[in-house]
């Protein structure tokens, strides 16, 4: 703690989720910051709250949380460009995982010239492993030692410049098993781990996701029905996570298909059906128009607040577990005021669950060209 500047974003990799919890508590006891969320844990057990912490950590405009503790969750698919410190507090013996963890610190950012690794488990020896970047290749000469004349010139003669490479395209096309095409950003170098533990490129991961989605829904209407209700949406996301497609990696895919301001629903419809993503703002605007006049003024005001949170934070704000926090945030912890404005608790729940279908109605974007 004394060696790290208190405002530098830091990832701490711990042995277990419980270990990550204990390290988080210890850091918060020793911190100089007065912020309660200076250090937070982000693991599989932390659910939507952990995902929210992760999004804030990745936001380069936000300084809190500053330190994240984790066990396995953040070794892949996290794009936090301003990470200045990587702290290793659990053994890492797999070279692929080691590269991915170190990769969390290699993202470029204005004013970031280096990052620091604090290794408490002797994982740094993996830098000496030939698998890290391979042994240097010695130049070879065929047919004996070559002179300058043998190479068609003289020793001191400058070599001709190499021809310029063609510029790398901003977008590459991935052709899927059914012959259709999806487009992803070509500059993204994120590696994913497949269900078998082997690394996958973004294109391979997209192909794998495309191949698995038919097991969860047969068409767009069925997906919309599942996604429109918080309970079935949660079950769908849990099922995808069990297949290796967690919220974390779906958010990474969101970035790769250039849909950062869209819903995870748009990631799935784009991958499965080649439907162009809509932004959350577009969905919220359409929902507001549909909802107008169907509820009391106070109920509409609450739904407008929920939609604003959805646009700002994402679909996680619409989860069943978010209703109570949203009410407390809107009514400054005065739940009795919420009941007075909105009705009985069961009516509030029905209101919160029921309006969401209007975000995902049939007014979808057009299909992408294939």
Helix content: 25-40%
Number of helices: 13
- C-alpha termini separation: 53 Å
**Strand count:** 9
Distinctive features:
39% helix; 9 strands; five-stranded parallel β-sheet; 370 residues; alpha/beta; 2 domains; Rossmann fold; two-stranded antiparallel sheet; single chain
Structure description:
The chain folds into 2 domains: 9-128, 3-Layer(aba) Sandwich (Rossmann fold); 169-370, no CATH class. The model is unreliable at 144-156 and 364-370 (pLDDT under 50). Strands 2-3-1-4-5 form a 5-stranded parallel sheet. A two-stranded antiparallel ribbon has the order 6-7. 28% of the residues are buried. It contains 13 helices and 9 strands. The protein has helices spanning 17-30, 47-58, 95-103, 202-212, 220-228, 230-242, 247-256, 264-273, 280-291, 297-313, 323-330, 335-342, 345-354, and strands at 9-13, 39-41, 67-70, 83-88, 116-119, 171-175, 181-185, 192-193, 199-200. Helix 5 packs across helix 6. By secondary structure, the chain is an alpha/beta fold.
